């Protein structure tokens, strides 16, 4: 079944959401918990699979693979059962931007990080993409598994990814290479070669503050990068949070005030 052709509008600046307008009998699929609002006439249903194929066992298998990628066991389908156009909106739970991707412009398939998929037109499929290289699997920051978003038969289909912070889109030429923090990758075309390399130099490893590994993305193909990975945001919040349920250590004392000046708070 071909994907539905949907209209959309992205709202907001740094905390974006996507409003999708559905014609009668059109539908959109989304991860559980992504919905912000839906107008009267839009019906919500849960399913084990984005495509009604493979029987019950096949749908259970697909749902299990979604769990491996960090997504929910069920997906949610929002269908317009009214005889007029209706809106349904989706948003991510942390600050960032919505990235619309027309799969037909990228060979029918894109690879993205876990949790990047927000929603998409009915007919697309989200599956797992195993990383065959050992280095990518152990040191890539996301394990062996990424998400593969595919349109049926390589045709077109709109999908929406979520990126933390701002988004950088780069079109790499043949053999053009970017070295990227592993958490800053949102997605890339299947023509892009993805690998992991060690940071060179013992001082860089110990004091560079960028970890021991970075990703290399080699063209040709389009890549999407994010400025604020959720793991980086969560790490900063955790570091600033009070320990043991009380005040942050030193807070309210002379020592705490001096440390705030040094620490930039």
Distance between the termini: 55 Å
* CATH topology title: Double-stranded beta-helix
The general outline is: globular
Number of strands: 19
The chain-level mean pLDDT equals: 78
What's the domain count? 1
Radius of gyration (CA) equals: 21 Å
User: Which percent bin holds the helix content?
Assistant: 10-25%
Reported for the largest beta sheet, the result is: 6 strands, antiparallel
What portion of residues belong to β-strands? 35-45%
Count of helical regions: 5
> By CATH's scheme, which homologous superfamily applies?
Mitochondrial biogenesis AIM24
* Structural class based on helices, strands and sheet pairing: alpha+beta
Notes on the protein architecture:
This protein is an alpha+beta fold. The chain has one domain (7-240): Double-stranded beta-helix. The chain contains 5 helices and 19 strands. The chain has helices at 55-68, 134-139, 202-207, 230-240, 254-263, and strands spanning 7-11, 17-22, 27-31, 35-38, 42-47, 75-80, 86-91, 96-102, 109-112, 117-121, 125-130, 145-150, 158-164, 167-172, 177-180, 185-189, 193-198, 213-218, 221-226. A 6-stranded antiparallel sheet has the order 5-6-3-10-13-8, with no helix packed on it. A 6-stranded antiparallel sheet has the order 11-12-9-16-19-14. It is globular, with a radius of gyration of 21 Å. The model is unreliable at 54-61, 132-144 and 202-210 (pLDDT under 50).
């Amino acid at each position: 079944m071909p994907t539905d052709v949907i209209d959309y509008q992205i709202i907001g600046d740094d905390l974006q959401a996507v409003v999708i307008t559905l014609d009668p009998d059109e539908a959109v699929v989304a991860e559980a918990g992504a919905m912000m609002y839906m107008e009267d006439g839009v019906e919500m249903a849960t399913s084990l699979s984005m495509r009604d194929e493979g029987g019950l066992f096949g749908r259970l298998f697909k749902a299990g693979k979604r769990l491996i990628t960090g997504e929910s066991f069920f997906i949610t389908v929002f269908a317009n059962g009214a005889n007029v156009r209706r809106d349904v909106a989706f948003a991510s739970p942390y600050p960032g931007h919505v990235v619309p991707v027309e799969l037909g412009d990228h060979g029918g398939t894109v690879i993205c990080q876990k949790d990047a998929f927000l929603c998409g037109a009915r007919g697309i499929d989200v599956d797992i993409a195993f990383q065959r290289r050992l280095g990518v699997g152990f040191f890539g920051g996301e394990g062996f598994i990424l998400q593969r978003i595919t349109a049926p038969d390589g045709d077109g289909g709109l999908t929406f990814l979520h990126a933390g912070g701002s988004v950088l889109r780069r079109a790499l030429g043949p053999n053009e290479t970017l070295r990227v923090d592993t958490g800053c990758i949102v997605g890339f075309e299947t023509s892009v070669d993805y690998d992991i390399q060690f940071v060179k130099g013992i001082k860089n490893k110990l004091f560079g503050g960028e970890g021991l590994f970075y990703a290399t993305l080699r063209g040709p193909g389009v890549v999407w990068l994010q400025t604020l990975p959720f793991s980086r945001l969560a790490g900063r919040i955790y570091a600033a949070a009070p320990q043991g349920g009380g005040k942050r250590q030193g807070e309210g004392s002379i020592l705490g005030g001096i440390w705030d000046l040094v620490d930039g708070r």
